[in-house]
Design goal:
With 64 residues, this protein is α+β, with helices and mostly antiparallel strands. The protein contains 2 helices and 2 strands. It has a two-stranded parallel sheet. The longest helix has 11 residues.
């Protein structure tokens, strides 16, 4: 699987920090992709967006 992380755009560093945290948690670097255009860019590119209730299951606690 591939994990795509993104922010709202601009100077937001949350996606970069999320990508680093995923790598620390064991997700291989080649599966983590930072989408620099942000959420607005994602939508305007016609990429899929899920809305409504989450369908991926329960949230798990983040290990610290």
């Amino acid at each position: 699987e591939v994990v795509v992380v993104y922010c709202n755009g601009g100077d937001c560093e949350d996606s970069l920090l999320t990508g680093l945290r995923l790598r620390e948690m064991g997700v291989p670097s080649d599966r983590i992709h930072l989408y620099e255009a942000g959420f607005a860019g994602w939508k305007s590119a016609g990429l899929p967006v899920e809305t409504g209730p989450r369908l991926s299951g329960p949230l798990l606690p983040v290990p610290r």
